[in-house]
Structure prediction request, 881 residues.
Amino acid sequence: MKRLLACLLAALLLAAPGAALAAERIVSLGSDATEILYALGKGDEIVGVDDTSMYPAGTAKLPKLGYFRALAPEPILAAKPTLVIAADGAGPATVLTKLESAGVKVVRLESPHTPAGVSAKVRTVAAATGRTAEGEKLAADIAARLAKVPANPRQPRMLLLLAQAPGRLLAAGSETAGDSFIRLSGGTNAFPGSGYKPLSAEGALAAKPDYILIPSHVLGLAGGLDAIRKDPALARTPAATAGRIIVVDSLAALNFGPRLPEAVAKLAQQTR
Amino acid sequence: MRIEARDIHVRRGANPVLSGVTLAFAAGEVVALAGPNGAGKSTLLDTLCGELLPSRGELLLDGEPLAQVSLESRARRRAMLPQRAGVAFDFSVRQVVEMGLHPHGIAASRPDGQRLVEDAILDMDLRHLAARPVTRLSGGEQQRAHIARILVQARAMERPLLLLDEPTGGLDYRHQFALADVLRRAARNGATVIVSLHDLALAARVADRLLLMESGAIVGDGPPAELLTAERIAGLYGLDSRSAAGLVPQAA
Amino acid sequence: MATIAANPPVRLARPALAGVVLAGLLALSVLLNLRFGAVPISTADMLDALGLRALGLGEGDAGNVMVLREIRLPRLLSALAVGATLALAGAALQALFRNPLAEPGLLGVSTGAAMGAAVWFVFGAALLAPLVAIAWLQPFLLPGLAFLGALLAILAVLSLGRRGGPGATVLMLLVGIGVNAIGAAVIGLATFMGTDTEMRALSIWLLGSFAQVEWPVLGPALLLMALAAFGLMRTARLLDLLALGEAEARHLGIDTDRLRRRLGLLTAVAVGAAVSISGIIGFVGLVVPHMVRLAVGPAHRALMPLAALGGALALSAADLVGRLIALPAEVPVGIVTALVGAPLFIAMLLKNARGLS
Prediction:
């Protein structure tokens, strides 16, 4: 039955004017790339994804080919891809060049953490998959929704935290996805450093955050919301005493994919 | 002279351990070193073998300054048994004994190498232990394995020079006497043997010449029978005259 | 009671037998490594990719030929070379320290090499710009810096942890912990100062993996490993005598200071080159020589070549397991060796502790 449907679908695609001659077999390395592919209607051509590609639900059924910064070439080749979309940071770089030398087309995405960067990624993926028109529409839609997020005159101070282990917290400084996410939502980044840096008790106090943002995937590593609330480094900050600790969807907020406007709007609303 | 020390002074750290020692050793003699703990016996042997450098004085091996003789050449001209020898890893007794061939570049598989190794194993009564790891043997058995190694090294020399520091440690009487016989036999064949011993009776049994040491100096040099009087023993070791009299070797 | 005459043939036969067994297993491991992986490849394709089309099994699929030549072959070669080199380095360090627990990983030599590599990853481009510009030299820079890091670690361990007597094992392991800590601190500093991407690349690389190996990088490292392995093998005769102690070795004509410097240098080259292509892979240098010693005894003229064979076998087998156990993804080989090696290390430690008490 499934096979029959697939044949019908293939026949339809072949018959459709202007459609690609044959379906691609796509391996998507990076959650942003995967989400963009699904948003462009290419989800059913994906034959494998990296471990971080966990949205949308359809990814659960796909072969997981490893952590996207520690990939090996052979598992990817085993999926017999015709096209590999590699998000920024996917690698090691030599693995991607190996795929290319095996005759696989590899499209590398850049990821400046800006609205324009998101649109550019969408357009690149759209161009690589023959969905230029849909890509334009999606990119414009993302830009429009981001532009609609109202400015927050209070510019609340926010601290976005990652965790290496319970009690070992890293704060997002400038030039990180977390920093861009905060600023897009109308806040100011309370942490003065650059990159992800270990957070000290004094550093946390000096940062005076009004809000503490915890990406959802960090919750488990940090030991849960309670552990964060009671963390000695955080307990005396304005955010913790007022109970303003917000869990944000890691992928939507930080992968700078199609769901960024949603996440930004939600945070903007929560911190109004 | 096989080996000669001319007015040597040796320090360990800041402390002088040998001061102004002048000695010469000829081929064919067995020389025993005796004296109380800390008299400088081990230091003298370490110096004669080249391990310790004298701060003053001259040391000659076959008339050549020892410091100018390469380590390889020294190993082909003298064999040294230090006081505490140990082995890491489970080398068998035979493998340890074969190590004595190394300085001479003789392979253990060569017939002459095999003969040297087998003879030493027999002499030190190790036949039944030859395949056992040295580390699993008793202290005395380990010592015999190391003596056998030194014998192999020495016997491959044209004119052997043996330096042995307390070789009888852990040996029972039978094996002490066996060692004494081996050393005497070597000297008869032209070897020079210098051996430190605590047992004065054994020293008298094995040695042609006895060196008595005290506080880093030679205080007696001569045939054991002449040197080993009750009075001298009492003075040297700080004993009462009755105890000292009991230590005078009878056969001497 | 065994006769004397019966002994020498027995001693000759055991290492030869072990060599045949190890070589057989190694050949099997090589074949399995080439034959199996995430991409299904037929035996005919495999033979074709290796240039054995003449065997009459037909022409291989071009894609599969590429997978074999560009992915499995360099990977297999690096696993073989790194395994052999680490086992040799382990055996040499054990002889030098007269201690079966001496190992490049535990003594901090691997971490030292990783420290050099971390400096290369984060500061290399800025620090060594004039050298980076020289094309033929460039592939040697990472192994070079890893070598310098390993050399620093070895010098530290040699100057501090080589005392004999009771407590020597504890002292050596403590110094190893100290050197490891210093190396980890420098790596931490490098990651702190590096960019996010550099930091993550480094932490993945530290796990120990052959996934990123490619021919151009492999060449210089293989050359350095081969030189170091050759040099270490040539010291085999002298290593036996070190077991007697340094003074005794000198009495037997060995210039122990020179030998120590030579071993330190060769081990640093070996570990530096190995770590530069694979990251830190622990316990191979510990477990393999130990096993070989159990099988054929401690004499290094048999131990060294057999340890090299055994190391190549162990690491190629571990990588095969890592590649197949979590299909379609992979487990880094460093994790596989640690899972197998760490319990064996603890067993050795317990045995050692019983021997001391």
Summary: Chain C has a mean pLDDT of 84. Chain C has one domain: 76-356. The interface with chain A takes residues 37-40, 63, 66-67, 70-72, 192, 195-197, 199-201, 204-205, 207, 209, 211-214, 217, 323, 327-330, 332 of chain C (CB under 8 Å).
